[in-house]
Amino acid sequence: MHRKIHSKILAVILVTALIPLAGLGTASALLLSGMKNHALDTNNELGSTAATDSGTALTNQIESDLTARAAAIADSVDGKLLQIENQTRIVAAYTEKLYANPEDYASRPLNYLQPGQEGTAIPHIRTAEGVDYDDVLPEISLLGNAADVLEEFIVTGINVSASYIGTESGFFETVDTNSTGPNRKDYDARTRSWYIGAKETGTLFWTDIFADASGRGASLSCAMPIYAPDGKLMAVAGTGATMEKISEIVSGAKIGESGYAFLLNNRGEVVITPKSEFKTDESGALIGENYADSTVENINKLGDDMVAGKSGITRVALDGEDVFVAYAPLPRTGWSIGVVMPNAEVTAPVTSMQKSINTLIFDSEAAVNSYMTTAVTVVIIAVLLVLILAIILSFRFATTISKPISLLTEEAGEIGKGNLDHTITLMTGDELEELAHAFNMMTDELKLYMKDFEKVTADKERIATELSVATNIQASMLPHIFPPYPDRTEFDLFGSMEPAKEVGGDFYDFFLADEKTLAVVIADVSGKGVPAALFMVIAKTLIKNNAQMNKTPEQVFSEVNNILCESNEGGMFVTCFMGYLNVETGVFNYVNAGHNPPVIKRKGGEWEFLPCKPGFVLAGMEDINFKPMSITLNEGDMIYMYTDGVTEAVDQVEDLYGEKRLINTLNEDRELNIQEIIKTIRLDINNFANGAEQADDITMLLLEYYGSGGQKRE
After folding, report:
1. Strand positions, DSSP E, 218-334
2. What whole-number distance in Å separates Cα of residue 701 and Cα of residue 498?
3. Domain 87-245 adopts which CATH fold?
4. Domain ranges of the chain
5. Tens digit of pLDDT for each residue in 321-372?
6. pLDDT band with cut points at 50, 70 and 90 for residue 530
7. Which fold has domain 479-705?
């Protein structure tokens, strides 16, 4: 072995050193001359490529910076809108408490604005024509308790000009920084756009930007409906605010040397820009350029994209100037922020950089010529010296290297036979000695690894066993025997739950609260895995225990919500739907805590969503009042309940399964029984996902009502 390695090393040195060096000595001048020409050509090519690539990269960076700036301005504006929205929500929530619990509040009557009080932020009322003050005095005295809240927002709000409540009964309570007209008895809030918008949408509503009638400039209103405990609309809370701060953010934005920002409303109209003022016609309607209606194709597409809530960057001609426009949406109001920078300003750094690169190319060509001349001389001398030295050292070098290599090979072979206790001893004082030491460390670490591997394997098997047991325990906690009540002919049930992990946070349940009341529950705990499963067990147990104590669904949710809020340090919550079915009359009373609305099919009809107010989640906030709702089921009617794992299932490109596809799948064959329906939906979800990993628990529960004298379908 030693002689073989020695001979090979010696042969390699002689072949790779002596013969090439002899030839290199005669050809070095020609080769270096060719290298010089190639280096110059390559230098020019690389310089040109670098200039192009760097210019592209710099342009892309500027575009990225513009896009980020548009998003930053949008975030800043959205923050101001959020403050106004939060104030409106607080007034609405407080007023709903007044209507829900009037006996808890003292009488606090308000009156019309009195002479001498004009222009002051004093709480007062106005009434619609034909509304008598004494007739609505009890309600005025109740809502007078909200005056402090309205007044506080006028003092502390950002650009808040008025805070108010308009009622269905015809009076209007307000605190306004520019109150005018004492004893106003001809103001009907019910005819105002903010009131109508909130009433029709049934949720938070933003008005268009308008010119304030009191001379406060561009303004807007945010409004929210207020309902009585029985779901009846009682009033609308609103906040009026000027656009001053938002205008400062947009118009004051510094975009390069000559760029600017602008605000586009949800109809494509330019509302705020430093290039023009906010203008309205005699009716108060906005007068401004409309990008969405522009006859210029690129500007029209820009307007359409901004109105559609998209973000990005494009290049268009605005006012005869070639510019880049980056844009970002304001989803809260449907507006969009645009950032404009002239193309000339964007490309100026690129042009300057390309000039610098061309200068460097010229300088490098001169340096290459000088270096190549020196290199030719050095190579010729080096070839002669190496040729002589290689012959002298080759034999000695081969002998010195081959011996320790052979010894290391023999010692490593002993370890390779499985003797991990063998130690390699090699004293060469170079890398071979370090290699021998590395072999020794490797055998020690290999022995430790084998011991650790055995322990890790055992731990994994134990954890897998425990998770398998937990999966079985969770599955056994949910009703899984179908049909569940073979002796009951009034109804039938079928459900399924597939966790995204070994254990999940979804659950469904059903039980007889009494002989004629069937309770059904479906819920989704935030998060996944073991924490969600533990929280699920607690929520499921509390709901069932309280339901069997002769409580209504809304009382059950209120009690369970307060219990779950106690010591909820993990910040978990539960979305839940619960209903009581009177199996004799078909009356179905239900309540929703932030859960997906169920789907109902009347006998012979199509599937459609059950009217259902979302409500607030369980464990989110104490002392929440949940709104009860009710329908009557007839023979053959079905209700399908599910968690968001169904509608939010995704395919390979992250598209959602969605509510529309769910309804279409249910309506494809309306004659299926309840088991076939759930199996059909699960199969359609699998086909839609097309191999994509299940991201959330998929839980479904289906109830079919046959009536007090009905008969179950086979």
Report:
1. 218-227, 233-242, 260-264, 270-272, 312-318, 321-330
2. 12
3. Beta-Lactamase (3.30.450)
4. 87-245, 250-278+290-345, 479-705
5. 899 999 999 998 899 999 999 998 887 776 776 777 777 767 777 776 777 6
6. confident
7. Phosphatase 2c; domain 1 (3.60.40)
